[in-house]
Amino acid sequence: MSDDTRNRVTVDIYGQPYTIVGAESASHIRQVASMVDEKMREISVKNPSLDTSKLAVLTAVNTIHDYLKIQEQLHQLQLELQKEKD
To answer: Cellular location of this protein (predicted)?
Structure first.
């Protein structure tokens, strides 16, 4: 992929600016950043003593946990659909 098809977007996550470069649309990149910011703020309210690094790791752990749960749900639905086809 050439550099001219990549979007460069500056976003704010937990009060810090980040420039994110990716093939997705600028609106998609902003949405992802907004969701990360929202999750970090949500966790921070529950754990106000966390420094930013620990908060970021906890946010990543929570996000991957959610991702794996959704992946398992998708797998179960695919199995159910396959059973219906058979």
So the answer is: Cytoplasm
b/e 2-34 (16+ beta carbons within 10 angstroms → b): eeeeeeebebebbeeeeebeeeeeeeebbebbe
State pTM to two decimals: 0.83
Task: State the DSSP code for 23.
Answer: S
Q: Which residues pair with 70 in a beta bridge?
A: none
Cβ atoms of 58 and 42 within 8 Å: the answer is no
